Model the fold of this input.
Amino acid sequence: MQTDKGMSADVVELRAALLGWYGENARDLPWRRTRDAYVVWVSEVMLQQTRVAAVVEYFGRFMREFPTLEALAEAEEERVLAQWSGLGYYRRARMMHKAARMIVAEFGGRMPETAAELRALPGVGEYTAAAVASISHGEAVPVVDGNVERVLLRLCGPQLAEAGGNGKPAVGALRTAAQRFLDSQRPGEFNQAMMELGATVCLPRNPQCGECPVRTHCSTQGEHETGPAKQMRSRQVAYVLMQRNWGPKTEVLLRRRGEDESQMPGMWELPAAPEGGLPDESVVLTVRHAITNTNYYVTIYELPWEEKRTLKAPRGSLQWVKLRELGEVPLTGLTRKVLKRTKILPGTAKGALA
DNA sequence: AACCCGTGGAA
DNA sequence: TTTCCAAGGGT
Done:
C-alpha cells in the first residue's frame, strides 16, 4: 500500500475532483443522514443487488418498525420477513435478523466496528463489511461493487481489465486499484462518491462522459464491453384466488411455502391450481412475473371457497387470512402483485380485471 | 467457480 | 413486448 506522501499528483487531483463533485451532486438519501452503524448496515443489505428507488420506501418502514439493533433482534422472523415482503432476496432478511441476534448474544449488543469483524456476520461479505466500516467508522478500506468495478475498468483501461489473464479482471487487482485511489482521510465519502459516479454518470450503457468530474483521468472515455446476456427461460404457472365472507371480514386463502424450499422459504403465496387446469371462465388475471432468468407466465383462477377441498397442499399449509392481516404476512412479490391488481390490496391496479 | 436467489423500472 | 440489470452473498 502506498502512503499519501508517495502518491502521484494525478491521484491526489482525482480524489479532489471526485469528492468535490460528490459534495455538489450527492443525492439526499435517508440513510445518508446518519453514520449510525446499525442504520448504515440495514441500508447496505437492502441495497445489495437492489435499486436505490426500490429501497427508499422499504428502508423508511423498516426503520420505523425496527429502530434499533435490539428491536430487530427481539422481533419474530416472520415480522422481519413481512417488512421485507416485495423487496426480494429474502435470505438477506433472514441472515440480517440472525446476525442481529448474534450481536446481542455474543457482543452484548455492540455492533462490530472493523471490516474484518463485520465480515464474520452472516450476510456481510467483502462489500458490505467495507461499506459499513468506512462510512460509519472512517476505516480506510475500499468498496468494490458493480459500480466501482465499472468505474475502475474505465479509468484504468485494458491493463486492469485483462489482469485476470482469462479475459476477466482479477478481483485482487480491482481491490488494489480501489485501495490506491481511496482517500484514506475521507474513505466513507470517497467510497460513496465512486458508487454515486457509477450510478449516475459512469453508466453501463451511454456513460455521460461530458459530465464526468474525472474524465481527464480516464483512459477509455467510457468504452467498456459488457458480457453476453443470459438466456431467459419461460414457465407456465397457475394459482387459485379464493375468498370467503364479505366486507371487513373478507378472508383470502393462502399457502405457506415450506422452510426447505430453495425459493422464498416460509413465505406466503396463493395456492397452486390443480394440475389438470381449470375452465377458462374462471381466469381473472394473467400476468408475467420475472424471477432472475425465468419469465413466469401466470394464470390466476378465481374459485368459490367451497372448492377448497379440490386443492392439494401439505397438511396445515393452507390458511384463511383476513384482509387486515395481510400487511403482517410475508407475502411473495408475485402474490402481492396479484392481490394489488385484483384490488384486494391497496395500490396501483394496472393490468387488473378488464 | 458457476449458479442460485426477487423485483420492477428503464431501454 | 422482452430484455437488461442494480450499493452481493452463500454455496
Notes: Residues 43-52, 54-55, 89, 91-92, 95, 122-128, 131, 143, 145-148, 191-192, 195-196, 198-199, 204-205, 226, 229-230, 232, 288, 290, 295 of chain A lie near DNA strand C (CB under 10 Å from a C1'). Residues 233-341 of chain A form a domain with the Nucleoside Triphosphate Pyrophosphohydrolase fold (CATH 3.90.79.10).
